[in-house]
Amino acid sequence: MMLSYKYRIYPNDIQRKALDSTFGFCRNLYNCALEERISYYKKYGKSLSYNTQAKELLEIKECFSEAEAVYSQTLQQTLKQLDVAFVNFFRKLKNSKDKPGFPRFKNQDRFRSILFPQCNLISGGIKRLENNKIKISKIPGEIKTIWHRPFQGRCKQVRIVKSIDKYYIILTCEDVPKEHRTPIGKTIGIDLGIENFITMDDGIQFHHPKPYKTAKEKLAYMQRRRAAKQRGSNNDKKIKVQIAKQCEKIANIRKDYQHKITKQLIKEYDTIYIEKLNIKGMLEAKGFEVKNSNITDASWGNFVAILKYKAENANSLIVEVNPRNTSKTCSHCGKIKETLTLKDRIFKCEVCDFEMDRDQNAAINIKRAGTALMMAAKPLF
Asked: What DSSP element (H or E) covers 308?
């Protein structure tokens, strides 16, 4: 299987300046290539290809001395990044019902990574040295790197990412060996919620830290302070960085919590039944009972994505079921209670007088539906 490994790097002031110069040139190359494609389409009615624009790199290197300070394949990958954006745009234009977004020009905040393809940390633009530092092509000196865990498999490419004032390298590795996990024969049904992040069919609940809800007043205060500053001034830039760091902290709290929960679930259960939520539909629905900020703070989609890749690595099974009426159906007699609302935290059946926490009741129904799906998919002979 394929996995990515992220490590923090600590460039000095000279190296930071060189890296920022590389980011800046690649961003300008991306924007100029996008402008060229737009102009060419307006004039000739068709789009430029990647190969056509890549041939211009030799001329660009002759005209701009900054291009000599950038690894050649990184420049090619910048043009490929734009080409992929156009391929996705035309694909969505043809197939998607929603209006696709046209590739946008990148400002400094939106262009935050550069790619070194065909890099195995021995050759390909970035080398890992014996002292555990790294040497990046065209960047002076050796850069301190914190290898907080070993990576596995074969490193195929390396991406350098800038996040506010921090720098990272992300290794994409192939043929990563899976974990040898002994099956224990346990299954679980999970209901995703707002009050409790997840509720399992055995009644165990995990409460979400809700980092955005906790920090939104502080964020609002910082944004009001920024609104009083002149845009582009030094004070405006300082507050902008503070806001970005606060948002990063919120994301890190959420991500750390989800990694811990998913690790525990994969360790304790062989099969996990979970509801397949249409999160985009929830966010776009008018008059929905749950606030959009609560949905995004819960980050169910990211949680399920983490759960899936960890399950694949551990040879566990994730089964997604249709969530329709899982909360409204009585897990005891099967009667659907149409009058149930989100405010009703206890499910009480009007037919059989069965009473249970609504999320646990939903988790039991999810597990039952998932088990039925598995039985239907199992061959008879």
From this structure: helix 300-313
Residue-wise pLDDT for 50-65, tens only, equals 999 999 999 999 989 8
Q: Find where tokens 């002076």 sit.
A: 140
Give CA separation, 191 vs 220, 335, 360, 370, in Å: 32, 19, 7, 12
Structure tokens at 164: 């506010």
Q: Which has more confidence, 182 or 150?
A: 150
- CA dist 228 and 231 (Å) reads 9
Give me the residue label for tokens 């040497």: 135
Q: Are 155 and 119 in contact (CB under 8 A)?
A: yes
Return the amino acid letter for 135: K
Instruction: Identify the three-state secondary structure at position 166.
Output: strand
Q: Which residues contact 194 (CB under 8 A, 6 or more apart)?
A: 208, 290, 294, 295, 298
- Cβ atoms of 322 and 276 closer than 8 Å: yes
C-alpha span between 112 and 108 (Å, rounded):
7
CB-side neighbour CA atoms (13 Å) of 228: 5
CB 133 within 8 A of CB 145: yes
Residues 6+ apart with CB under 8 A from 377: none
pLDDT, one tens digit per residue, over 102-123 is 999 999 888 999 999 999 999 8
Residue 102 has which token pair?
């046209």
Q: What is the mean pLDDT of residues 134-154?
A: 95
What does the pLDDT read at residue 4? Answer: 94
Between CA 8 and CA 198 the distance in angstroms is 31
Summarize pLDDT for 267-310 with one digit per residue, the tens: 999 999 999 988 877 777 766 667 788 888 888 999 999 999 99
Dmax over CA atoms of the chain, in Å, equals: 81
On average, the pLDDT of the chain sits at: 90
Tell me if 108 sits within 8 A of 27, measured CB to CB.
yes
Residue 143 DSSP one-character state: B
Full strand arrangement of the beta sheet holding 205-206: 205-206, 198-200, 187-192, 271-275, 317-321
- Name the phi and psi angles at 266, rounded to 5: -65, -35
On the question of pLDDT at 381 being above 70, the answer is no
Cα of 212 vs its chain's centroid, Å: 17
DSSP 329: B
The Cα 211–Cα 196 span in angstroms is 14
